Amino acid sequence: MSKMIGFNNAMFWTDEANILYCEFNNDDAGAKLELSLLKSYIAAIIKLCNGKAMPFIIDLKGARGTFSIAAAKYLASNPELEKLKISESYISNTIGTKLLIGFYKRLYDPITPFGVFKDIAAAKKHSLAIKNNLYESN
Questions:
Q1: What is the rounded CA–CA span in Å between residue 22 and residue 90?
Q2: How many CB atoms lie within 10 A of CB 92?
Q3: pLDDT tens for each residue of 52-65
Q4: I need a surface site. Which of 2, 4, 18, 130 has the fewest CB within 10 A?
Q5: Can you give the three-state secondary structure of the chain, one letter per residue?
Q6: What is the pTM of this model?
Q7: Nearest to 109 by CA among 58, 46, 65
Q8: What is the pLDDT of residues 75-129, one digit of tens each?
């Protein structure tokens, strides 16, 4: 890991392959990610990426809850994030989280390539494949 920023229920870091990792941990199924906390997370992501576009791997295995509509819209339309994310690979082990991801992507962000995986190895393989295809085509 080259750089890391942590919060109470979230950790963000990059690796030597220039992939951004986001890991969320929250046991409260009633929790809702609000816009104010999301803005702090986005600031951390912007700092870690340092202007370099990279794939995002988002580990939601330890996360419960949902996000506010305002947070979802802000996340999907944030111009700084749009410049930084090449793709999104989600790690999930529950059908509820997989459905939430599908709903979010279909409704708010149908453009960014994504996949949902059971483990980090598969997510990283997918992320690197998209990154390599992008740079080979340019």
A1: 9
A2: 20
A3: 999 999 999 988 88
A4: 2
A5: CCEEEECCCEEEEECCCCCEEEEEEECCCCCEECHHHHHHHHHHHHHHHCCCCEEEEEEEEEECCEECHHHHHHHHHCHHHHHHEEEEEEECCCHHHHHHHHHHHHHHCCCCCEEEECCHHHHHHHHHHHHHHHHHHC
A6: 0.90
A7: 58
A8: 888 999 999 999 999 999 989 889 988 988 888 888 889 999 999 999 999 999 9
Tokens of 72: 């979802």
Q: Which of 43, 30, 131 is nearest to 88 (CA)?
A: 131
CB contact set of 87 (below 8 Å; sequence gap of 6+): 55, 56, 112, 113, 114, 115, 126, 127, 130, 131
Amino acid at 129: A
For residue 127, the Cα-to-chain-centroid distance in whole angstroms is 12
